[in-house]
Amino acid sequence: MDLVHWQDRLERHFSHLRDSRSSDPESHPVFALEHGLDSAEIEDLQSEIRRQAKRGPPSRSHRLAWIVYATELGYAYEGHEYWQTFEKSTPGWMEHGDRNWLRDCFFKFRNEYNGVTPTGKWADHFTIICWPITHAILPSDLQSQLARVLYRIRHRFDSDLLHSADRLGEAVAQFSHDTTSRFQNLVQHPFLVGWVAKALLFQEEHKTGGVILPAALERIVADLERTQRARHWLKGAADSARDTTVRGLRRRAPAEWREASALDQDREIVVNLGIEPDLVLRPVSEDAWDVLLRIRDLSPLIERFPEVRQTLTESRCTVAGSSGRPLARRRVLYPGQQIQLRRWPSPDRVLLSFDRPCRILEGLLRTECLLRRGPIWIFRITADGNAHEIRTLRVRPGCEYIVLSKAPVIAQAPLTSPTSVTCDGVHAAHLRVPDPVSARAANAISELGLQQARAIDFWPAGLVPKSWDGEGQCEWLSVDQPCIAMRCDHELGEILLELDADPAQTIRMVPDSRSPTVFLRFPQLPPGKHQLVAYALPSQQSEAQRLGQLDLLVRPPRPWTGGVAERGGLVPMVDPETPSLQDVWEGRAQIALCGPPSHSVHCVVSLFQTSSGSRILKRGLPPLPLPVDSTLWRGHFRQHIADHPDAQNAYDRAGWCTLGFTADELGSFVMRCEREFTPIRWAYECGPHQSHLRLLDDRGSDQSIHVCQHEFETPDRHQELRVEPEQPLTPNPKGGMYVAQCESYQSAIIVPPSSSRLTSFADLGVQPKLTPRNRTVSDVMELLALMDLWSRSRLVGDLRSLLKQRDVLMALATETFGLLAGARWRAAESQFADTHGPTDSRLKSLAVEIPARYGRGSLGAVLTTDCPELARRPIQARVDALARHVSRANIVRHARSLVEFALRMASCPQSLRDWGAEADRESAVRSLLEAPTIAKAARLVIMGVDLCIPSRPIVAGLLYNGWEW
């Protein structure tokens, strides 16, 4: 069948499909994948398209055939180099084809047949290939990921969620934080994702012509079920969706929640979500305890307040009172996180703060993320040896407690004995409550501000709850039916039990003296916080006396996922949680391995080709002794993999890699890291005699790409180049940095000199010559932009690329601080570089340039003395210490943020991207020009800590040891 006949057939088909959905065109658009062709017909159409492409340019009269052809390639697309695959599969397209013409075909399809329109940030960036990929509905490489996320959220299904495609798509997006970047692009279109998810969950209902053509749906399901695990995920999710009924009260949709936008109502929602952290004491010796803050899962916030998604998934969190080291990204989205507190937080300070703040999130956390005000806090010692906080301040006979107080006299009170906690700002005492409680003991308990528990007990019975603190707080899953036991040791006329202050959910009962224990079974409760209040009615004439309450916290369950157990022998720590191939290869991923020191861990790295999925490289790394920190791993990976020419050549052809870690009986795990989808990128081909660069362009745009080259000797000057995409480019024999930029996209690569002859160690480095600049904000900002560009560039070739990049960054940093601090400081740094010997003597030239009075000496002398101690402390503690010194020296008050900026700029320029927006950085530069002492102090601390820390492998973008932000 020729293309004319294919065009006629497709016109009739899509016209009928459009008309059948005309009743609701906005909610039921048409996809090009719904073409209704079987596999043999698809092959026939593709053959005709390829014949036409060889003969001449495509014709408008065949546009539907071309749309189906492009969509089929989008269905098989794996996220890398769509146009390269398209051109390879379509001989003649390079000579006769036009990408913009193909996009116009999709525009016309949208207008004539109500075709779907791509949306989201990804569609804004990739304005052409977004059309065939979106019309492919669910490309094959994303199918199993969608099934896994649906299986993960199956216990959250309710009638509201399954009825709304938008809500279902948002729920999928909420729990897709550990998926690939390709899937992250997909969930930027929540309605499309929710629509496809509904079709997969209710296949039988949609086979009669619902949201997706049955033939297209059956094809997706058949491809998805090719793997056993994906088939299991989809079946489990579909079973839960079909069995879902309304449980308890109807949950309002996010739009309904947001209609009442008053802060008080938002806070009420947050309270019901049950995200309030609690405190736990862990024994470290017979008379000492650690104070741990247990952070609850914050992911429910994303469902209720989608605006906080970016902050919770992409920002790092710092816990008030901890060591100051930020938590890994997304760590707050998982339950059971316990952080040790070094200092007792102020009750007015929010316990969790994020490096990319969000006003809505800050307002919500100020409701449920504050430490409970004292003056005392009580913890019951349980059978596991830990002590759990009792918020009711009630004690029971025969039990032991740890009481914390801001006042030290608590240890001398009756019934208490001294103990200690490893947390500054609070005092502790060990309380033993006698059984029975005498009048004197009762008075002592009252003097401590505590209450004696009433002789009516509630406790969970039957199915074991997820957690129970023994004093009125219990946690269940939404799939459980909670059972509560109640027992009285004295007569009561009548007991009234009220759930959630709802008169319709109230039980009146008279205890039977012959059976003192009563069991109450609840139906399945919706997720959130519920409250069961007990009242006593001694007689019909008397008023009800409140006995107490039981807080029932109901959470949706999290499905089991394969991998290493949370407390297994080999524990990986990865940040970000799902690093890309570029993150691992270029050293941006923080990978650490925890385990017993007497064991070693082996790693096997495999690279796989995008088009065929075949393995193109497999290499085992030498074993490493446990534990392995991120710095050691980064140097090990670069030495044995990233710096090898054959691995570099394989890297540019690879679509993903796997890292397989094995530690014998401790266990093993495998990480899969996919290439992040980028519009333009450099490919480096290292040959035996000559190397080449190749610029890969996958934007689908005719706008030209600006390319320039920076030499190592003159890193702040550039030379314009004319480079055609896909064409080989021979690098400058001197090497340097090549930058490609178009619109907001930028890709930079650093290549070494072509000569492999080394006559001295000086050939490994470089002495850059920079253009003189003025002491202005604009000139300093220009240097910061250059430092950011050089530090983020991809390194290829041999060790010389890394060493020369380091020399360039050192020169730029020295020039930057020379402008900030003046000519005398520049000379002092030069003298420091030429001096050898003990730390104090080397820092002397710098210390004399900071003469600000501090106590009986100068600020420079105090900082020099403190450097060995600061080297043993975490980075945020160093920031706090330097900020205190600056404030006490009356240089600038409340200078912590400015101090952190200066320290980041001097030690790791690329970390400034996590500090704030460009306008904030410009304001910080202006402040440092007005107060250069802060810049000098930061530079001294950076160099002093570096001298006190043993040398480590060189890290790209990191100028000094001990400053990995």
Description of the structure:
With 965 residues, this protein is α+β, with helices and mostly antiparallel strands. It folds into seven domains: 3-135, no CATH class; 141-243, no CATH class; 263-368, no CATH class; 376-452, no CATH class; 460-468 and 478-555, Sandwich (Immunoglobulin-like), CATH 2.60.40; 571-677, Immunoglobulin-like (Sandwich), CATH 2.60.40; 822-965, no CATH class. The protein contains 34 helices and 37 strands. A seven-stranded mixed β-barrel has the order 1-2-10-11-9-6-7. Strands 14-15-21-20-17-18 form a six-stranded mixed β-sheet. A hairpin with a 5-residue loop joins strand 10 and strand 11 (427-432). Helix 9 packs across helix 16 (228-243), helix 27 (799-821) crosses helix 28 and helix 30 (859-871) runs antiparallel to helix 31. The longest helix is centred in the last third of the chain and has 23 residues, at 799-821. The two termini are 63 Å apart.
- Ranges with pLDDT <50 over ≥5 residues? 245-263, 561-567
The share of residues in helices is 25-40%
Count up the domains. 7
Mean pLDDT: 82
Largest sheet: 7 strands, mixed, barrel
- General form: flat
Count up the helices: 34
From the helix content, strand content and strand pairing, which structural class follows?
A: alpha+beta
**Rg from Cα:** 33 Å
| β-strand amount | 15-25%
The counted number of beta strands is 37
Terminal Cα span = 63 Å
Strand line-up of the largest beta sheet: 1-2-10-11-9-6-7
